[in-house]
Amino acid sequence: MRIVRGFVASCGLVLAGCSDGGVDPDEAWDPSTGEHLDSSGDGDPGGDTQVGEDSTDGGAVTTTGSGSTSGSSEGAGSESTSAGDTEAEELPLPEGFQLPFVCGDKWRLDSWGHAPALDMVREPDQHGTEGAPLLAPAAGVVNMSFYHDNAGNVVQIDHGEGWFTTYLHMESRSVEVGAVLVRGDMIGAVGRTGPTSNDHPHLHFELGIDGDGDGEASWGFAGAERVNPWFGGVEYGQSNGLTWRDVESLNCP
To answer: Rounded distance, CA 82 to CA 78, Å?
Structure first.
């Protein structure tokens, strides 16, 4: 099985579609229940950083502890493009990536309206999300570490062979550009920095591929060079409106 990527003039890199959900600045979560308090039906604790124009809203599907899902969802997740618009190129699946959290901890993963990007909170009730250690999911070199006006503390890691991971809203960053990492090295802590976090502690995570050869993966907007994440050989983020419960981190020594 291989990932196929393509380039479309209006959308850049296409793997899991180009649709992206925005976020209502008035929406919020109840941190004790995990239920959204907004009336939009979205419930996204944080939207994309630069673009949030799409109004698609996928049907919610819940899975437990794996990347398999059932049901369907509209919006992101389609790999179809108009004939002649895409130049397909096969890529090997990303190998060796684990959740960026302490071994054995369980997390909830949601694609909300911005698949394939994922928002992550601690199970079972989100308590312990803020300040939780963030660990490198695979070996790599830090190529971004800075504060963004919308996304807050941001780190991006270059894992080689064109693969990048990007982390938004971090409480703190413990690595600088050029730091060489092995899997499990601490890179910072989960937080709520930046206005697009909606002041709700969570990790916004993106797996990206450098489609244009500029030495980084764009992130945080519709058409960014982001793809479906894989952790422990399991695929996530296939479409909007998906939830995975009790996903255990295998980021172990």
So the answer is: 12
The tens digit of pLDDT for each residue in 37-55 reads: 332 333 456 656 553 323 2
- As for how many domains the chain has, the answer is 1
- Its domain, for residue 169, covers 1-253
What CATH number does the domain containing 27 carry? Answer: 2.70.70.10
**pLDDT value of residue 70:** 35
Mean pLDDT of 219-226: 95
Q: What is the pTM of this model?
A: 0.73
Write out pLDDT tens, residues 147-161.
999 999 999 999 999
Q: Report which of 146, 147, 226, 133 is spatially closest to residue 194, judged by C-alpha positions.
A: 147
